[in-house]
Every structure is written in structure tokens, then in C-alpha cells.
């Protein structure tokens, strides 16, 4: 699904430059759970933004689904994001004024799915994460854990090939974080590749591969078999 070689991201400044990612080799296959770990500022979010086609990179190569997208236009990157990638972030990123059924349906709207089918699929996705009785609530009427479950429903509603999760449990209590993590891991059964940036060591035993970053460099890669 994702194969990157020598990924480097440099942010220029007047006096010097910030190397946010330094010559990273990275892989995530369909049906795998890949964890990205490391301290704050180590480059985790930069790596996820690049492989999720949200951000460009300074040098290296990136293949998505067997196609080289290193020089893809923004229009092509946007098409791939809409059609094949789901995102879940720490704050869920929900639109406050919209009921969560409408929030959840947004990826389907971008794909041109008819309104009635969008509502049916969004409702089903919310029921699957335990929010069937909350579909007409706005994000402000939900708890933190419920917001994250709604965010996960939105990330999965279009059956993405790639699910990217950036610290989705960091602001949650232990029980709620465990529940969200369990639901994310279950998405592997759909055949999606899951890339998850996390500090939660309880997930290590479930991962197929773990990448550890420090100061923009991948310093360790651990496989499930090891």
C-alpha cells in the first residue's frame, strides 16, 4: 500500500533550516497495523502527513498502491485522499455546527454519493461505534470519547484503503483510549493498512511493525516476528 524511500522534509528558515524528516524508509501493507512512536517533535506527524498525501516532501520517493506519487499534482493527491484515505486526529476534527451524522457523511459527499445513501451509510458507521442514539447530536453535545468514536466512524465510512491515526487517544482516559484503540485495530479486518502514531505501549503487541523516530530519523524498526 505505502512504500517510501529516503523521505526527507526540510523547512527552510532565514538563518538555518529545520530537518523534520531525514532519509526515512517506511512501509505499510494492506491489512497491517503499523505504529509510529517517538517523543514529541520527533517527526511522527510529519511522516503521517506525507504518507497521507497532506504534505509534500523535499526529497525521496513515495509509492501509493503501487503507483509512484512522488511528483503527483495537488489535484491528483486530493483525488487519492478523497477516494482512498481515512484520517483520525487527536481532536477528531469534527465540524461543530453539523450533527455527527452529517460530519460522518462528509467523505461520501466528496465522492459524489447520493444524499440518501450517504445518510444510510453514515448512520450505519455510527451504529458500529456505539453512537446510533447520538446521530443528530452536534459534537458539542458529545463527550471526548464519543467525539473520537464519531471521528473514527467518519474515517471509516468510505472503506478507505489506508487509515491514518495521529495520536487519537492522547487526550482520553485509559478506558476510553483502550476502547478507541480496539476499534481502530478492528479496522484491520477490512483489509485497510493502518498507520498509527502513538505513545501507547499497550498497542505494541498488536502491531505488525513499529517505527521509532528521534529528531526526524527512524532509529529502530521492529517486526512482529521479532
Automatic annotation (TrEMBL):
Instruction: Name the source's superkingdom.
Output: Bacteria
| Keyword check for Secreted | no
What residue stretches are annotated with the ABC transporter domain?
Answer: 2-226
Instruction: Name the keywords, alphabetized.
Output: ATP-binding, Nucleotide-binding, Transport
What's a single GO MF annotation on this record? ATP binding
Indicate the secretion signal residues: none
Q: What is the name of this protein?
A: ABC transporter ATP-binding protein
Amino acid at each position: 500500500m505505502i512504500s517510501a524511500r529516503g523521505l526527507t522534509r526540510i523547512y527552510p528558515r532565514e538563518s538555518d533550516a529545520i530537518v523534520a524528516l531525514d532519509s526515512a524508509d517506511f512501509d505499510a501493507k494492506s491489512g497491517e497495523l503499523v505504529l509510529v512512536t517517538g517523543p514529541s517533535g520527533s517527526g511522527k506527524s510529519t511522516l503521517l502527513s506525507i504518507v497521507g498525501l497532506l504534505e509534500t516532501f523535499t526529497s525521496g520517493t513515495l509509492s501509493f498502491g503501487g503507483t509512484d506519487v512522488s511528483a503527483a499534482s495537488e489535484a491528483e493527491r486530493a483525488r487519492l485522499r478523497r477516494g482512498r484515505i481515512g484520517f483520525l486526529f487527536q481532536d477528531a476534527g469534527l465540524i461543530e455546527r453539523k450533527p455527527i451524522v452529517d460530519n460522518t457523511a462528509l467523505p461520501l459527499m466528496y465522492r459524489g454519493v447520493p444524499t440518501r445513501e450517504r445518510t444510510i451509510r453514515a448512520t450505519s458507521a455510527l451504529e458500529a461505534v456505539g453512537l446510533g442514539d447520538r446521530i443528530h447530536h452536534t459534537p458539542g453535545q458529545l463527550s471526548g470519547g464519543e467525539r473520537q468514536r464519531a471521528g473514527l466512524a467518519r474515517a471509516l465510512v468510505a472503506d478507505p484503503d489506508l487509515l491514518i491515526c495521529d495520536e487519537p487517544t492522547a487526550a482520553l482516559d485509559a478506558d476510553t483510549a483502550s476502547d478507541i484503540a480496539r476499534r481502530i485495530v478492528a479496522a484491520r479486518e477490512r483489509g485497510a493498512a493502518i498507520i498509527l502514531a502513538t505513545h501507547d505501549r499497550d498497542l505494541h503487541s498488536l502491531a505488525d511493525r513499529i517505527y521509532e523516530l528521534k529528531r526526524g530519523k527512524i532509529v529502530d524498526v521492529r517486526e512482529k516476528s521479532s
